[in-house]
Amino acid sequence: xxxxxxxxxxSLIGPGTYTSRRLQVRLDTATVxxxxxxxxxxxxxxxxxPGLTFAGRPALVLAMGLFAWWLIARLSPTLFLxxxxxxxxxxxxxxxxxxxxxxxxxxxGLPTLEANRQNFTLLxxxxxxxxxxxxxxxxxxxxxxxxILRVFLWAAAFMAVIGLIQSLFEYDIxxxxxxPGLxxxxxxxxxxxxxxxxxxxVAGTAIHYIEFSTVLAMAVPFGLHFxxxxxxxxxxxxxxxxxGVIAVAVPIAISRTGILALVAAVGVMFFAWSWRTRxxxxxxxxxxxxxxxxxxxxxxxxxxxxxLSADEDPxxxxxxxxxxxxxxxFSQRPWLGRGPxxxxxxxxIMLDNQWLxxxxxxxxxxxxxxxxxxxxxxxxAGVALRRSTTAEDKHLCAALISSQVVAILVGATFDSFSxxxxxxxxxxxSGLSGAVWRFTHxxxxxxTSHVKRLFE
Length: 456
Fold this sequence. Notes:
Number of strands: 6
Structural class: mainly alpha
Distance between the termini: 24 Å
Number of domains: 1
Helix content: 55-70%
Largest sheet: 2 strands, antiparallel
Low-confidence stretches: none
Order of helices and strands: EEHEHHHHEEEHHHHHHHHHHH
Strand content: under 5%
């Protein structure tokens, strides 16, 4: 594989002292993040460390370790290579808004269920921030970043295959992925009937059908990237096949949100492609539709009717009927909200809108913090795209932008941060947006700065 020129530049680790950024180590940030991704996608979402909440998913426990690693490195001049990183300030704002909302919730007095849920949300926030910061500051070079994304694609393809098996054979193979020593916290997603064709929805290893389809849709642009830019014909064909499996699995969740996510992801990439690539992708898309019609008859017709009759769908009308309650809760505590995670569906309503959920529970300050996260990541990936000198780097930056656009759009159709597979996929892509900004920075000290490894 061709080495990226930036990866050959040394890092400054002390006065007049440099080290290679391609040094082979036993355990570095990229390896830990890759392991986290495998745990996030390949184990059922309901599987946790015994005695813990959903924050005890193995992947999330590892994310907490990443937060501790970053914090220790930040305080130790021997572990942290200094350099500016706008995403740090954005995550500080996000954390402060969460703590302010948490305090506001405590001051108003909380029932036990709400207090427990608020504590859970705060814990997950630290885990989320840990993954964002270590992906942004800890990935050493382009080679390690691409390793993470390749593992992400393998894991997404694994989840897609699980979903396809569930859909084709009506057999929940995810039940066979229970690891000894872990326990099931909640019921795994069942096969929910949808449409008049005898079809049913599947969730793979995710906790919900919408989550399954949206995270796979976010993976498609990265699959296309490796299908186009892998160094050998064999690897390009391999990733093209992986991408095909992932893309075909999106519709079997029979979710409008999943289709919206896929269209948005590919739509963003449309602007990064040449006209020849656009025509080729149009042909591939038509072939995929034909394949879907053959493999799972009735899915396309069901999805079409779901969009055409959306105004009659109870799930759509239910969302609009929630606006009155949202207005009431917002008027009570507009700035800091009710408290993170305190709008519990079993006690109140199922609010299928992350933006409104954030407004009610975090207030205006929290909503601005969430918007700032998306804007910062889009801006950083956009700056990196403009700075990049190769088509491959530009395409990768565009794929990172697409993940943020997808998150912004689907946030209006379901409470996305309530589902940890989606939330931590977004955390990963957010952190990598900060990483590509660093790699393309004009100052060498900045683009070679990263958190050092634990073991040499």
